What we know:
The protein has helices at 21-30, 63-70, 92-98, 115-125, 130-144, 159-171, 189-206, 217-223, 241-248, 266-276, 304-314, 327-335; strands at 2-16, 34-48, 52-56, 78-83, 99-103, 177-181, 209-213, 226-231, 234-240, 251-257, 283-287, 292-298, 319-324. By secondary structure, it is α/β, with parallel strands linked by helices.
Amino acid sequence: MAMIRLENLSKHYKVLNRSEGLSGALKDLFSRDYRIVKAVSDLSLEVNAGEIVGFVGPNGAGKSTTIKMMTGVLKPTSGLLTVNGRIPTKNRAQNMQEIGVVFGQRTQLWWDLPVIESFKILRQIYRVDQSSYNENMNIFEELIDLKALYSTPVRYLSLGQRMLCDIVASFLHNPKVIFLDEPTIGLDISIKSRIREVIKTLNEHKQTTIILTTHDLSDIEALCKRIVIIDKGTTVYDGSIQKVSSMFGAHRTLKIQLPPAEYLALDQLATSVNGHFSQASAITMEQSEEGWIHFTINQDEVHLMDVLNYIGHHYPVHDIKIEEISIDKIVKNIYEGGLA
Ligand SMILES: Nc1ncnc2c1ncn2[C@@H]1O[C@H](COP(=O)(O)OP(=O)(O)OP(=O)(O)O)[C@@H](O)[C@H]1O
């Protein structure tokens, strides 16, 4: 049985077209000038029990709206949605008992209380019986040495420690489904891998279905077999992460900042880079704000270091950053037939 089922699910927001100025604000009080924003359009998806699915898309793709519908916070405009066989908005109390939610940017723990007190409160809220509570606390203890953090108020935890506590806390009431939203955002690589390990172990141990939203593709590579990519409210890819990794795993984004005096030389830079490397199609260039230029480089064909050396040799580079390929770029490539 599918744990989560979406069939032609849509969510449209009605947004007032705002007028400018004070008179505009007054006019808006009586205005009926609305437009419809189709945040989610005819989205169909089935997730099986125990699966971890990476749910990604560019900004504004409709991820949060979909998650809000799955958690029962928002009512769909049309279509069918069930989580564990239930319509999330119909019985919200029961639904909340069966799901867990973790937001990388916020905590569900009590800021001023020692960690253990938050766990005790969650135990009361979700009415977890003493033996499951003890059993889970033992598992968590093994995974993250919780005892060392017991008496620390949440606000004194590092971001990584807090995230680990938030994640295990979301498993405390043995939910069937957990929604993880950017669980490794802002964390360094060593704590990221601990967090992934904890998620993986708990998923295997408890067979919890997990929907993972992240902008970090390596989170998905580490945790998911399946990735669902959405854009403009609908699915553009639903399949194996391996395929996505083999297509884009070698791509890197090289970001270069030139000093203001060089901003005008961008066209020249593009021509010069394309002219120098014979495999020019492996490099795409895009101008960003404040003199930053983004190169997406397929390292199977051109080494990033060669591009960097070449640019450094000819232009006064101010600053550089190297990142994985962005989800936006992957979506762009999909539209251009990249994953067909
Ligand atoms: N309450 C709202 N009222 C009107 N429009 C909304 C509302 N919430 C979201 N939208 C619009 O719906 C679309 C989808 O937004 P949503 O937040 O679901 O995307 P997202 O994929 O989660 O984006 P992000 O990664 O930036 O959080 C966007 O165009 C957004 O502006």
